[in-house]
Inverse folding.
């Protein structure tokens, strides 16, 4: 059986075999049946039945009885699989663990926090922000003293701007974002003007999440407090906030320039010459094809792919979104790439929340903000399981790590004499020795860094993973529906493997048994009366006359095709086969007698049939009926197998309790 077939089978089993965990075995919930010594209460069975018969129909005696038999057969097969040890094999354990990992994911996430992030992102997408920033580098693994120094430096810069200094000028002077600064002319390149920290317009998901959050919380004209990202510390000046129009599509004509005055002037003269031609009535599209130096769009008349805020350089984006109507055209404008004329082609507004939700969710999963719901959940887990930590006991590791850790060769035995507890969770102690083992197992070749920071970061990961493992191990206890689902998949895998061995694969591999079954039942697999024919489909009456003449002269089919289709392959088609009524239009239209038929019209073609032989109704060969025979043989094997199981394992049904259901 293929993997996708197995997944389908498991989904059916999961639907068929659900047992309500809250069912209680007491005097108000009598035992309905016992299967191989295991009792099944009335409420357990009814939970299964009602889940699979939830169309609102009245409960019928026949339905209850049929379902009871199907349920008994299912439980017997699972019992047999358990007795044969199918649930102890390595392949079963591995497969069930894989399904458990998938099924556990929704339980190991903070849905409320996820929903909040989706709503927040959509709300932010309604606006676009133009902002400038100043960056002071500070790597994520910096020592506390270096982090403090970077923070103090950015605060001093902020104070200068608050006191009145120009943001752009200060950015060019001190920002560690190299795009902010002017680049002096050199022998290798001309002067390049910096952007003074201006990032242009952006919206949700355009910037790293902490930066995005700080920008959206800052009012236009104000300067944010320092915000830490993986790049370092930033201060942000929001210069404009406006509604997000969605996606715009434009066409453009571009004349490339470098940063030299000569190139810029020549480009300007050329773009204005083209602009004047358009104003005089010449086609924008034709001029784009002829003159634009953006070759990828020039061949399309200048048309570019649609884009959203934050995808283009600021000057180009501002010009594109400023065009009000379809067909409007900008005046020539300058960017770092050269000179452009922009024409509006289309505008697509933001989709609705429901239409955006799946895309937003996918973006969150790829974004650093996805860590927030996980962090919320871990904090809840820590609280629930009484987490306590002793971070002072990490101090020895600051000295125990050495250069071998950066080579992936550090040995945990160096911490063998350390035995203090580093944290507790769920009344279980995790010691320095445990942490040393974690450090060793998670070391990789990496760039050197401060040992204190590395130890602290790895410790946080160790705590997080341990907390998640603790929660994961308790899912069956905490969530009855998860336990039920796992039982369904467990039973489904067992049932699939055993049924495959006893029925499906056995029927395919047992060639002698299949042949014997066919011989005893071959009259079930009959051909109706058929004709052995050649069908000639001709383009015209003249072609049919020519073909019949060639047949009269005993010409072979290949020679007829070569002669008739000499100038066109559409003049004649020849088809051989055996057909029953309803399998071929032309064969149905002609009289069934041996020889060449009269012409008939089929789908505007002229067709005649040469009936070689009329075949009486007869059994199909095993090869011809193998699919049907195999299915029927599988059904017989399953029926015989169930009879064996019914004899092997005792089944008792309390008819009095059954009548209370009926």
């Amino acid at each position: 059986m293929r993997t996708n077939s197995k997944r389908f089978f498991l989904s059916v089993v999961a639907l068929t075999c659900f047992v309500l965990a809250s069912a209680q075995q007491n005097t108000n919930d009598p035992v309905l049946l016992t299967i191989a010594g295991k009792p099944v209460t009335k409420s357990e069975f009814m939970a299964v039945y009602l889940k699979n018969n939830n169309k609102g129909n009245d409960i019928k005696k026949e339905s209850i009885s049929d379902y009871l038999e199907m349920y008994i057969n299912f439980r017997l097969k699972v019992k047999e699989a358990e007795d044969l040890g199918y649930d102890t094999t390595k392949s079963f354990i591995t497969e069930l663990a894989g399904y458990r990992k998938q099924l556990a994911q929704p339980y190991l996430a903070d849905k409320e926090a996820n929903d909040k992030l989706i709503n927040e992102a959509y709300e932010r997408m309604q606006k676009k922000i133009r902002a400038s920033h100043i960056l002071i580098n500070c790597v994520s693994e910096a020592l506390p003293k270096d982090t403090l120094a970077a923070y103090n430096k950015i605060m001093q810069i902020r104070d200068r701007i608050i006191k009145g200094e120009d943001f752009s000028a200060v950015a060019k002077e001190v920002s560690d974002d190299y795009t902010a600064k002017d680049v002096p002319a050199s022998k290798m390149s001309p002067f390049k003007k910096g952007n003074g920290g201006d990032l242009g317009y952006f919206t949700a998901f355009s910037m790293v999440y902490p930066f995005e959050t700080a920008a959206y919380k800052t009012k236009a004209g104000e300067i944010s407090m320092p915000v830490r990202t993986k790049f370092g510390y930033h201060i942000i000046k929001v210069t404009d906030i406006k509604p997000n129009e969605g996606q715009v599509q434009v066409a453009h004509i571009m004349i490339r320039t470098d940063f030299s005055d000569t190139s810029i002037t020549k480009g300007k003269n050329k773009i204005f010459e083209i602009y004047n031609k358009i104003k005089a009535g010449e086609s924008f599209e034709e001029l784009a094809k002829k003159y634009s130096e953006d070759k990828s769009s020039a061949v399309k008349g200048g048309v570019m792919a649609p884009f959203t805020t934050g995808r283009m350089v600021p000057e180009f984006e501002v010009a594109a979104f400023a065009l009000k109507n379809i067909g409007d055209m900008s005046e020539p404008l300058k960017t770092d790439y050269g000179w452009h004329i922009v024409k509006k082609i289309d505008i697509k507004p933001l989709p609705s929340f429901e239409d955006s939700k799946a895309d937003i969710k996918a973006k969150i999963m790829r974004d650093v903000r996805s860590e927030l719901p996980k962090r919320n959940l871990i904090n809840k887990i820590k609280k629930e399981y009484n987490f306590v930590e002793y971070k002072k006991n990490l101090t020895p590791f600051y000295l125990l790590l050495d250069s071998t850790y950066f080579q992936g060769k550090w040995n945990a035995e160096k911490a063998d004499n350390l035995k203090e507890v580093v944290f507790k969770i769920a009344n279980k102690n995790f010691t320095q020795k445990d942490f040393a083992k974690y450090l060793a197992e998670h070391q990789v070749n990496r760039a050197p860094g401060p040992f204190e920071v590395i130890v602290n970061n790895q410790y946080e990961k160790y705590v997080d993973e341990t907390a998640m493992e603790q929660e994961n191990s308790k899912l069956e206890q905490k969530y009855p529906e998860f336990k039920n689902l796992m039982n369904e998949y467990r039973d489904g895998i067992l049932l699939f493997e055993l049924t495959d061995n006893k029925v499906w694969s056995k029927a395919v591999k047992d060639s002698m048994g299949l042949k014997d079954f066919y011989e005893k039942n071959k009259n079930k697999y009959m051909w109706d009366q058929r004709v052995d024919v050649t069908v000639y489909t001709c383009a015209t009456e003249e072609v049919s006359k020519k073909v019949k003449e060639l047949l009269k002269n005993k010409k072979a089919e290949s020679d007829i095709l070569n002669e008739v289709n000499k100038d066109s392959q559409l003049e004649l088609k020849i088809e051989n086969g055996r057909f029953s009524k309803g399998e071929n239009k032309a064969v149905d239209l002609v009289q069934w007698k041996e020889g060449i038929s009269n012409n008939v019209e089929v789908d505007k073609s002229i067709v005649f049939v040469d009936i070689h032989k009329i075949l009486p109704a007869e059994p199909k060969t095993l090869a011809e009926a193998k699919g049907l025979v195999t299915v029927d043989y599988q059904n017989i094997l399953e029926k015989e197998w169930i009879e064996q199981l019914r004899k092997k394992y005792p089944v008792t049904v309390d008819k009095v309790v059954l009548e209370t259901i009926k």
Notes: The radius of gyration is 39 Å.
